[in-house]
Structure prediction request, 1332 residues.
Amino acid sequence: MLGFALFGAGRIGCMHAANIAAHPRCRLVRVFDVVPAAAAAVVERYGGRIAHSVDEALADPEVEAVLIASSTDTHVDLIARAARARKAILCEKPIDLDMARVEACWEAIKDLNPVIQIGFNRRFDPSFEKLHRELREGRLGGLRQLIITSRDPDIPSVEYMRGAGGLLRDMTIHDFDMARFLLPEEPVEVTCFASALIDPRVAELGDHDTAMVLLRTASGIQVCINNYRRAVYGYDQRIEAVCEHGVIVAGNRRATTLEYWSREATEAKEPLLHFFVERYREAYVRELDAFLAAVLDGRSPPVSFEDGRRALRLADAAYESLRSGRTVLLEEP
Amino acid sequence: MLGFALFGAGRIGCMHAANIAAHPRCRLVRVFDVVPAAAAAVVERYGGRIAHSVDEALADPEVEAVLIASSTDTHVDLIARAARARKAILCEKPIDLDMARVEACWEAIKDLNPVIQIGFNRRFDPSFEKLHRELREGRLGGLRQLIITSRDPDIPSVEYMRGAGGLLRDMTIHDFDMARFLLPEEPVEVTCFASALIDPRVAELGDHDTAMVLLRTASGIQVCINNYRRAVYGYDQRIEAVCEHGVIVAGNRRATTLEYWSREATEAKEPLLHFFVERYREAYVRELDAFLAAVLDGRSPPVSFEDGRRALRLADAAYESLRSGRTVLLEEP
Amino acid sequence: MLGFALFGAGRIGCMHAANIAAHPRCRLVRVFDVVPAAAAAVVERYGGRIAHSVDEALADPEVEAVLIASSTDTHVDLIARAARARKAILCEKPIDLDMARVEACWEAIKDLNPVIQIGFNRRFDPSFEKLHRELREGRLGGLRQLIITSRDPDIPSVEYMRGAGGLLRDMTIHDFDMARFLLPEEPVEVTCFASALIDPRVAELGDHDTAMVLLRTASGIQVCINNYRRAVYGYDQRIEAVCEHGVIVAGNRRATTLEYWSREATEAKEPLLHFFVERYREAYVRELDAFLAAVLDGRSPPVSFEDGRRALRLADAAYESLRSGRTVLLEEP
Amino acid sequence: MLGFALFGAGRIGCMHAANIAAHPRCRLVRVFDVVPAAAAAVVERYGGRIAHSVDEALADPEVEAVLIASSTDTHVDLIARAARARKAILCEKPIDLDMARVEACWEAIKDLNPVIQIGFNRRFDPSFEKLHRELREGRLGGLRQLIITSRDPDIPSVEYMRGAGGLLRDMTIHDFDMARFLLPEEPVEVTCFASALIDPRVAELGDHDTAMVLLRTASGIQVCINNYRRAVYGYDQRIEAVCEHGVIVAGNRRATTLEYWSREATEAKEPLLHFFVERYREAYVRELDAFLAAVLDGRSPPVSFEDGRRALRLADAAYESLRSGRTVLLEEP
Prediction:
């Protein structure tokens, strides 16, 4: 029963707390949040005790691992402190919005050799994981193109957007990681188109809500990511992999299998599951499984710090392409 | 260029006239209808000349074949006269509503050995025909069950229903023929449930609009036909064949491939093609191809007089089951 | 935390034990099985203690409810004893294979007024439950026809079949309950065709593996159940509800959403989830939720003893139809 | 009955000849091909007479229109000569591979004001045309993104590729036109990734077989075209339009509606229709309808010379992007 300290008791922290509490191999020991009432609510529902500070949580000898679900700007500090306290680390994405801070964090922890896993939850979706396996095993031959469709149900609050580092670092970063997960080699070229079409407040923030990004690997495999931030029909998460001997598509999920046939339409299905908490419920549990297998069974964490760094590198390159109107070459990943 | 006399210039007669006119291997020579203006309209649009009587049409030496699309009660007389005049015969279904008349017709023509084909158009639908071929070739092993879904978009007029012989002889008869087309042996048991649920006028006529019929062959293969006469979403025509090694399904058709994803529904497609003229457009042309191949190339007509008789026999048995509350055994088909 | 005694530690008992152990509102207190090692294995994995007899389990004051998952012939005895011991009862289907014993059981317990729920798990499937709700709310108007497709992935062992009461009491009984769950009124007519087509051992047992059953309600609504016991592509569980203003279909489930497009086929999906443990995993948990809500919150159990009796009544009527070649009328349900 | 001269009796010329012969409003008068036997074969099958030269065809007073289906390098010359001869012109795409020659052609003919229509057949596909109408009518609000999937079943012969102007001018040009057809405003930015991954001979020719192109309009609407030249499962032609209030998808077509369910896969459908002759059969007929409506009824041809020029302009811009690694701005379309 691995003991966890949870940092951050917001929406995503609560979800992780529920998963920790329900998992047979771990338990919640401490919860810290800058809003103590939020921590208290989690403790009441999922067990453990409140920590009044990060240090108090890290000092608890029953805490063997930390789950970092606090605001992005706190991640690198918490990673470094947890690593020094010899805790295993499961940290929500992104590591940080600033590459210099990410790299400094790595310098600070690398000699401590912590067990650390970054929270790219989609890798653990059963369909995407099976797609990954099919591509690795070459069921339909070599990969030629990936089309990643990734659409949120709606734009977040202005407050959220203000601190999120922009669409490409907040939302597309998942797709950059997915592309790297599925590709047999690293992307070396990035080009990007982005617009603010949904709400004038997005443009006022200098942010975007509609984007297309192309990636290309050294051997010429191509990726298109298309992002849109108001899919009124639900959280649209699909991947199409064009291979030598055919195509494999991974699709969406709905709460039920019902279809309606009426005067207006036929085979009409429900809207998609609303957002990541619903769509990736199973993936979050399997992400936790994998982390526990890393800590308790000595396996490698399947999403490394370096994976977190490289996804950010691609987001930065996409912003550079936006600014310059050029395809950005990633000479060194 | 086989010369046709068309008997009957109503909706279905017009459709056949168009197909004859467009086909490279035949042409319209004569058109007869009890309403001369209807015949005139067909002639004006698709060629040929009006016949003022059946005899005039049959006496025309350029007439080598007849297409009988007049009202059902005229079929057996026209078949017999055409056979005596040594014309090839393509006759719309059903041969007649009365088994005694059907059998008398056969007695009258059998020694003349006419080329005769009954208009069970659905056998020529490309999907159903391919399903038939797959079952004959045993791609998924032996057949165990057939589920035939057959729903009209709406009930016909009271006037039409009055002369149509009841749901089972008018609509289900196509499904009886389809079952026989697909089964490897004749059905020997029939049971039927039928109701009038859509419109009180149906019940007033003593007719039905909602039915389920079960058939069973000697070796135990089962068929369910489900009929309904107000499928507001279009003409629903599907078959599911349960076989030893899997299932083959033949589905519906739409005018376009569009799908709509909105707040209310996802993957919503158009209603189905409205009715038989749209759904079986291609099938009617291929039915004519097959008839021309029989007459001009000496092949066997793919739907015989006996096929027409047996479909009626099944409809009669279903009515007998309705009356008696028993499964009807067809000792001799 | 409702304390459960589990009777029966076979496959389905194990599954229930896992659900009880994982549920926040209940726990496993006692496990009894005629094979003590089976009970021991469940206890080791899911907690509680072995009971060396039914009486020992029922005498334990921490046992507040029983889950009966033992062989069918033990159900009525266990129900009666549990009721006398004032335990709440969740009993797997069927209550018994013999109507006289079912009715005697009811006589024995009715004055004790136990909280009792019969395990028709499919009512708790999210798609079927939503279909039920849509029909009750009349989203597409009144119901006219139900087509229930229910196919097992393979025939059970001969040993299992020998004690299972025949296809219609073992497998179709679920579909009879589903029909009753979805219909707005009781079925009053039953007719049935059944064959043994899959394996000669089925015929040797006098059993069937392929069946079609028709039901009809007093107002004329029709139901077709089609059963087949070797769907090599997985556990096929679908319902089509034909309504006044359209059709609602509830479909199957798969482990992933992948689709394959290759030289041979397009949009090819995975086989269906293999069998009931996978297909109805969520339904079994929700069945337990509903039982806990009945016991702990005073709600009505959603599947009553009477529901169990009526499903058996329909199975008996279907066998009567098979024997007599008649439609059986259920004058009194 | 509009009289046509057909220039070019290759595969696509033959298909047009068949459509002309079958159409009630036109007929084939003259056929010219540099290989006289090819012209003779067309004449024998579809009527008309051989022309021994372009001039002979244009001098025939019964020739009122020309259909140009000869090799691309002959198009501008034939257009100019036909315009001077006062014939209506239906010319296969592209007008030419060289923008200077296209513009010179326009200068040569513009004062003659010919009825001229360029053969972007896909605009006449019933599904794409309905998609166009839905977008114009704003059924789901304003357009935000288009994803155009366009994959050929296989690479053409080396000989064909040598003269085809490269993937972007030969294949993608259809998608550029489709983007323009569906967008509410012109694209003003183009960026492109292209690779040769399928066959080494493609790279030896300096050509590509795998491409992704992004377009962007002034208001920020984005388009992704993804092309691949060996879709072993058939000719893959799909469009996804992301709009303010949802998504509309236009999909592929197959010869039948069959689905197979077996141990290996479920809902497996046939491969797609093989290539453009099958997929766009109906579109080619409707293209001819539209041309006839322009010539005979005085309507505007729905695909203008300028449409042909702009599609080529986009292809040229995509090549410029490939060379420069930049997004190319189209200041003036």
Remarks:
- DSSP finds 13 helices and 15 strands in chain C.
- Chain C touches chain D through 19 residues (CB under 8 Å).
